[in-house]
Amino acid sequence: MRIVFRQADGDEIVADGAPGERLLHVGQRHGLPLEGTCEGELACATCHVIVDADDFARLPPAREEEEDMLDLAYGATRTSRLSCQIVLDETLAGLRVTVPR
Length: 101
Ligand code: FES
Known about the structure:
By secondary structure, the chain is α+β, with helices and mostly antiparallel strands. The chain contains three helices and five strands; from the N terminus they run ββαβααββ. The protein is globular, with a radius of gyration of 12 Å.
């Protein structure tokens, strides 16, 4: 399924993700600067993305542990999420996110 990553400079990368795949890994596979240092253990926030406002409600709500890490993420906004916690399924086709600087 198609996922659109917008980079900090405004360039967009249209990525291909599979159901069951984490958004973090889709971004990494397409060369986006998502470090994912803790490999999804909710200990780093280097996988932070900002979800387009129109798409935010399509995602399952963040768990408390994710919210806590987002409080530490640089430049976090109301629609920020940790991409390691987003597992793709068909309902997320066409998702648009920005990778902050
Ligand atoms: S990879 Fe560390 S919190 Fe997502």
